User: What shape does this take?
Amino acid sequence: MTIGVTIDTRGIDRSKIDLVKIDQVVRLFAATVVQYAKDSMIGLKSGIVYPRGKRASHQASAPGEPPAMDTGNLSSNISWRPADIGMTEIYIRDEAAYGYALELGAPSRKLAARPFLRPALAAVEAPFIAAIKRLIEGMGR
Assistant: This one.
């Protein structure tokens, strides 16, 4: 699954852009997206309650809510990394086998979407673009 934010840099004098500063902002926002996604899984949800052994239970998330934390596997497998050395591009991914199905839903398994990455990205997209814009405008002077 690929999600992302693209900033059109046509018309910008690239010789005046400090890619190190841009890279720092991109990394900060990537870490923020990952933390937002992980935090969205914590707390009470409104889905079905499943028994776990004799005393324990787990309350799942309802369709449309971020997944409910159960074992912590999904949360611990969400990460970010630079796409390549010298590139201001970040990959945010989840390595859990079922993350894709939770994010987008799986009709064949009768599983409604429980998005966690797209809402995290949406939450930081406007501040991220504003930060990059301020940075680029400040460099053009």
Q: What stands out?
A: The chain has a mean pLDDT of 86. The radius of gyration is 18 Å. The longest helix spans residues 117-139.
